[in-house]
Amino acid sequence: MPTATMNVNGKVDINTFVDQAAKLAKSLDANTALIYNHSGHTVKFYCYNGGDFIKAIAYSKPNIASGYAGEIAAGGSVFKVHPNNEGKHEFLVKPKHAYIYRGPGKIEQV
After folding, report:
1. Considering the domain boundaries, does residue 52 fall inside one?
2. What is the SS3 assignment for the chain?
3. What is the pTM (predicted TM-score) of this model?
4. For residues 61 and 45, is the Cβ–Cβ distance under 8 A?
5. Domain limits at 75?
6. What is the domain-level CATH number for residue 36?
7. Total structural domains in the chain?
8. What is the pLDDT of residues 31-72, one digit of tens each?
């Protein structure tokens, strides 16, 4: 019998995300991480390469609604994420890992 898998891009229950996301994140592309937006608001995640000190052009900037999971992408062994392009709330993520974003300054690795 085939095992059900979670769609990594879309609406998903947070408990399902926590249960399955870390395993699914390991199968992602080398420049991609998985994030669940649990902030109560839609957030545009501006993602910059880890060594990008100017931050003039975002590598990616996905818009993820609260209660949804999505992929964020940039380059390097870590990359910088600015929720809604606010540098004061910058956080770092590692590719092939999964995270829960709970609001400014509140990010946790799953």
Report:
1. yes
2. CCCCCCCCCEECCHHHHHHHHHHHHCCCCCCEEEEEECCCCCEEEEEEECCCCCCCCCCECCEECCCEEEEEECCCCCEEEEECCCHHHCEEECCCCEEEEEECCEEEEC
3. 0.86
4. yes
5. 23-96
6. 2.60.40
7. 1
8. 999 999 999 999 999 999 877 666 677 889 999 999 999 999
